[in-house]
Amino acid sequence: MCDQKSIYIHIPFCVKKCVYCDFFSRTDLSLIPIYIHCLQKEIEKKPGAKENINTIYFGGGTPSLLSIRDVARILQTIGQRFKVSRDVEITFEVNPGTIDFDYLAELKKTGINRLSIGVQSFNDDKLKFLGRIHTAEQAEQTVEDAWAAGFNNISMDFIYGLPFETHAIWIQDLEKAIRMAPSHLSCYMLTIEPGTPLGEKCEKGLVNPLGSSVLSAMFKKTATLLSHNKYEHYEISNFSNAGQNRSRHNSNYWNMTPYYGFGPAAHSYDGKIRSWNLKNLETYIKDLDSGMLPVKGQEILTCEQEMMEMIMLRLRTLEGLDIHIFQARFQVSFKDFFKDVLAVILDQDLGRFKGNCFALTLEGKIRLDSIVEGFAKKIL
Ligand code: SF4
């Protein structure tokens, strides 16, 4: 088993909920101080040895709502409880509507060495539709401030495929992003989640999502335009500038490396057992105040679940699934076991073998869900 682990810190607070978002977060910011106190307790109480940590990720919610002092405190608690590698990657998500240059300059001093900026778009109509709290100008300023503050590993997040979005609108966003030359780009297709305000509007027929053929064409255009501009398409939604600065934290997930998740609704995985915390802030605080860990449940992954997990995660990546690793882990030949499924995929050129690895083509990535379903039918 890998002796390096990752840590995910969930910061479940937002100034305002965006209409498409189903992440667990709250808008009552007065709870932040008590939350930080409980988060530190959870980190301190986590059982286990003093493992090596090579990536830490502050996600949310909105981590940039924390004071610099709170960020430093959390990192200090992690440093006391775990053995943090010298070359640790520490990512921090920032929302352009919450910070300025001074904040970023101070943040840099805490040891944060990678920023993930939630730009989402440089188009104010898109930002307004999504319910973001910032303008395009603020997003641009944040990226400039981040460079000026000395960050040299900067990722920008974008969302595309909004109901009214044309190719031209999306390409404008992408071209502007390319001109700003971030180290990394994450481009997510808008998903309409049930239970969100956007999901409800769609259900009532007030908003019509784009059709799958338009979305597929946008996905392909994203991949080709970014590839032509030297961004390596190393995972379905992720691109690294000149093949440098892939997200090490997310790559750990796609490699099934164990991780600890702290905060309400956070998940942990030790290589065999997956556990998850309560998705309730009050109960999270109450449990930790009374000396209990806020774990809601856990499951030992069956061999079939692990197999599915490996297929689902690895087929998202550029390198794909290593059939030798698969065989060593499950004592089954990937080629033999999935002979029929693979025949269909290969016949339609949706996937290819390259050396020891099986990876999807661009066309295959568009049809990832149905391909994974084909493997699932064989396994489960
Ligand atoms: S800021 Fe991020 S986490 Fe918060 S509501 Fe918007 S998308 Fe969700």
Quick structural summary:
42% of the residues lie in helices and 23% in strands. With 380 residues, it is an alpha/beta fold.
User: Please, what is the average pLDDT?
Assistant: 96
Tally of domains: 2
Give the overall silhouette: globular
Radius of gyration: 21 Å
Ligands in the structure? iron/sulfur cluster
Find the CATH topology of the largest domain.
TIM Barrel
Span between N and C termini? 25 Å
Q: Runs with pLDDT <50, length 5+?
A: none
What's the architecture of the largest domain in CATH terms?
Answer: Alpha-Beta Barrel
DSSP helix count?
Answer: 16
Question: What kind of sheet is the major sheet?
Answer: 9 strands, mixed
**CATH homologous superfamily identity of the largest domain:** Aldolase class I
Helix content: 40-55%
Structural class, by secondary structure, is alpha/beta
CATH top-level class of the largest domain: Alpha Beta
Q: Give the beta-strand count.
A: 15
| Major sheet strand order | 7-8-6-5-4-3-2-1-9
Strand content: 15-25%
